Amino acid sequence: MPTSFALGRVHRGSSAEARRRLHTAVSRGQHDRADALLPQLLTFLRFIIRHGLPRTVKAGLAIQDRPAGPPRPPLPPLPQDDTRQLRTMLTRLLAGPLSPAVTPSAT
Question: SS3 string of 67-105?
């Protein structure tokens, strides 16, 4: 699977929906809702930056039952603890449970 396609699947499936919800809340003047959504989205984006885009995207795809294989060397897969944290963030952003636990091998 090309990286750009994989990236788009995770991006469209998670943060795009959260961005739509944030935009809708702001547009409707629902400031309390917007204030609640923004930190979740920022936490998700900071996580991706901190752990590296390729590792995070591949782990996110595996969580969603769309495995894209391990990152290319020298990058190791996302550790299991970080993968569990990513699963929790994706579940909150998508506002529903994800598929059963699928985690890349630990480092």
Answer: CCCCCCCCCCCCCHHHHHHHHHHHHHHHCCCCCCCCCCC
